[in-house]
Design goal:
single chain; 737 residues; alpha/beta; Rossmann fold; 8-stranded mixed β-sheet; 31 helices; 24 strands
């Protein structure tokens, strides 16, 4: 990767650079007018951003993060009114007209949006859009602008930039589109870059690459970065300072280490405690923040967090606390009880203790046995392939290829067990779940549900009987619920379809809502009247209505804030124990899979490349792809995150329509270069089978790093050696070195 000569030189003395204030925001207030009144989205926000600094702005959805960024960029809607001061290089932006702001946007201040596909024009090539962003602010020739665009694409890691500059946005993957947006933001050496959730929809491997590119962009241009995110692992990795926002106000700010290790605001402590930690199995519940943020149509008179805070007292209800300095030089907190928190050294575990499982729930827990010798199989997939024909032409259609979406996988789930299915987008996870749900024979292989081969289901009644035992909870709860139906109708619908006793439906719906932590006051509400967490609880209640035995959970919490996510994860664990459910848990969040799953299967380009118990796979990752996934996973601990050595897959995920021969991962494998030419040829020509993974001691001798948040001792391997045959990996490297 070559650096762009036109970029500003990298400055080594970061502290000296940060003395220069680039952006100064003081007492910013943003209001949106709507039919219900005036929504006070941002309430008195003040901060400064210095050259070379990375400042993270974190908080739940609706806290005012994006509204703050849009106000700074001057991209707020016409219904918004802005008060306060926003100065860029001392120049006042509040009140400036659009022509004046247009001269600054892209030149002095640039923005990387969350959704790159909607941020780019689909009818223009990425090169045309890059060239336009350069020529708007520069007077150079078209040829110079094109050369600069190629250099920018090369800098952000787009392969073959001379060719890809002529491609359209839809011809790029999500990660590559985000790289193009970063290249556009860098085009004119801006002094401030605002990145609004730049990695939310990306896989962990692509996320790690994008964060590296963002850091390169800021270092090469000496730009300041305002990073808006809800991922605290990303904050721990890239930010110098952090600001926590709640109900439109900054409630805590300071250096990243101070905010993570010495927080004095219960809300910040609750966010940190809501996260699953990949270093520990999910034997304990997560610390969830109960309740929801207040409505900003009528901001509270007291502390906005008082309805959810375990330390609330009469002082909190009388007046909203101001942001005051706690310690030198830069730790500020808005909590009336910060002295108590510091004096008693309170942690999130002290404030947000999860409710223990009841004795009745614990008594119903089923003994888990990953080997399957005691528990019955609820799902078994043997050599399953799901291929789709690829056609070309609209009038005279002809087959031009095949999409190998699922290409020969074996999966087994036992009663009372959770199997985590992980892998990058496009690896075949969703196709696998659809193959199970369709109850149709696959292209090749067999799928057995509860002992029934789906290929032998020859009647509608048999399919309905089997479908009753199998339910799914989708990723987006809002789009999963019909907005025209009340909560009662949504939960009762499957009961009516399966001829449930009409007189008992009402009692059953109430029972289901109570089971997922909702009361009867929600029965008459509609989907748009529910929060994200409440909507997902309704989806879970509906999925449980017919007393299923297997739940497919397709990214069930990825669309939720971390505080809400913890409550849903705790609920799923309770339901699993009390009802004896089995889960197929599909997710990108490897820390969450570690917390909730019993076994894990790693999928790459239609194939399972590693499988085993979570302890074995996470402590002893045998396949290079698994090692890359774990290495790229962000960890919400600044010290750990910044001292990790990462392995990132090379290049982009190949197309499932033309997968590489031999080992599918050999085109991206960071281990391949360590092999001899003959050994590399074996990777290129021969597809490896799943074989037992080697002990951790042998891996250490071969310089194959274990997951760095674990001690990784031989004793820990002995604890799982009973299921060694279940820990398998499809990789030549293990047996060639």
């Amino acid at each position: 990767m070559h650096l762009i000569p036109a970029l500003k030189p990298r400055v080594k003395d970061k502290l000296r650079i940060m003395a220069t204030t680039l952006l100064d925001v003081q007492n910013l207030n943003v209001r949106y007018a709507n039919e219900a009144g005036s929504l006070h989205a941002v309430r008195g926000v003040s901060f400064s951003l210095h050259a070379g600094e990375a400042l993270a702005l974190v908080g739940e959805s609706g806290s005012g993060k994006s509204a703050t960024a849009m106000a700074i960029m001057g991209l707020q809607p016409d219904s918004a009114s802005i008060e306060g001061s926003i100065r860029l290089h001392g120049e006042q932006l509040v009140g400036a007209d659009d022509d004046a702001l247009s001269l600054l946007r892209g030149k002095s201040i640039a923005m990387v949006f969350q959704d790159p596909l909607s941020a780019m024009t689909p009818v223009y090539t990425v090169g045309e859009q890059l060239i336009e962003s350069i020529q708007v602010h520069e007077n150079g020739s078209l040829s110079d602008a094109k050369n600069r665009a190629v250099e920018l694409l090369d800098l952000v890691g787009i392969p073959e930039p001379h060719q890809r500059i002529n491609a359209y946005p839809h011809e790029f993957s999500g990660g590559m589109r985000q790289r193009v947006l970063i290249a556009m933001a860098m085009a004119n050496n801006p002094d401030v870059i605002i990145a609004d959730e730049p990695t939310t929809a990306l896989d962990v491997t692509i996320q790690a690459q994008i964060l590296d590119v963002l850091q390169i962009a800021c270092e090469q241009t000496n730009a300041a970065l305002l990073l808006i995110t809800h991922d605290l692992g990303v904050v721990a990795r890239i930010a110098d300072r952090a600001m926590v926002m709640y109900a439109g106000k900054i409630v805590e700010q300071g250096s990243v280490n101070t905010v993570f290790y010495d927080s004095c605001m219960p809300y910040t402590m609750g966010l940190l405690g809501s996260l699953p930690h990949a270093g520990n199995a999910g034997t304990n519940k997560l610390s969830a923040i109960e309740g929801n943020p207040p409505s900003l149509l009528t901001p509270p008179t007291g502390c906005a967090f008082s309805t959810r805070c375990p330390l609330v007292d009469s002082t909190c209800l009388q007046q909203e606390p101001s942001l005051i300095k706690i310690t030198e030089p830069d730790h500020w907190s808005a909590c009336a009880h910060h002295q108590i928190i510091r004096r008693d050294s309170l942690t999130h575990a002290d404030l947000f203790q999860p409710k223990p499982a009841t004795e009745s729930t614990a008594a119903k827990a089923l003994p888990l046995n990953p080997s399957g010798s005691k528990n019955e199989k609820v799902l078994e997939m043997l050599a399953v392939k799901k291929h789709y024909p690829l056609f070309k032409g609209s009038v005279f259609r002809r087959r031009v290829g095949t999409v190998y979406a699922v290409d020969g996988i074996d999966l087994t789930i036992y009663q009372g067990e959770t199997l985590g299915l992980v892998g990058e987008s496009g690896c075949g996870k969703s196709t696998t779940t659809l193959s199970i749900l369709d109850l149709e024979p696959p292209t090749h292989g067999t799928i057995e549900l509860f002992g029934n081969d789906v290929s032998t289901l020859d009647s509608k009644q048999k399919r309905l009987a089997l479908r009753r035992k199998l339910q799914i909870v989708f990723q987006d709860p809002t789009s999963s619920l019909d907005p025209r139906m009340s909560v009662f109708d949504l939960v009762a619908e499957p009961l009516g379809i399966f001829d449930y006793n009409p007189e008992a439906i009402s009692a059953r719906v109430n029972e289901l809502l109570m089971l997922v932590g909702l009361d009867d006051s929600y029965l008459a509400r509609f989907a748009q009247q529910l929060s994200g967490g409440q909507s997902q609880r309704v989806c879970i209640a509906r999925a449980l209505a017919l007393e299923p035995q297997l739940l497919i959970l397709d990214e069930p919490v990825s669309a939720l804030d971390v505080s809400i996510r913890a409550g849903i994860v705790n609920l799923l664990q309770e339901l699993k124990l009390s009802l004896g459910l089995s889960y197929l848990f599909v997710a990108h969040d490897l820390a969450l899979v570690r917390h909730i799953a019993d076994r894990v299967a790693v999928m790459y380009l239609g194939r399972i490349v590693e499988t085993g118990s979570v302890e074995a796979v996470y402590e002893n990752p045998a396949h290079p792809y698994t090692q890359c996934l774990l290495s790229a996973m962000p960890i919400a601990d600044p010290e750990v995150e910044r001292n990790r050595v990462r392995q990132i897959p090379l290049g982009e995920l190949p197309s499932p329509a033309s997968p590489p021969k031999g080992c599918h991962f050999h085109t991206r494998c960071p281990k391949k270069s360590r092999l001899s030419a003959d050994q590399q040829q074996l990777c290129v020509e021969v597809s490896p089978d799943l074989n037992p993974a080697m002990p951790i001691q042998k891996m250490q001798e071969q310089d194959m790093p274990v997951y760095d948040n674990h001690s990784g001792s031989e004793a820990s391997y002995q604890n799982t050696k009973e299921s060694t045959s279940a820990h398998t990996s499809a990789c030549h490297y293990n047996y060639l070195v």
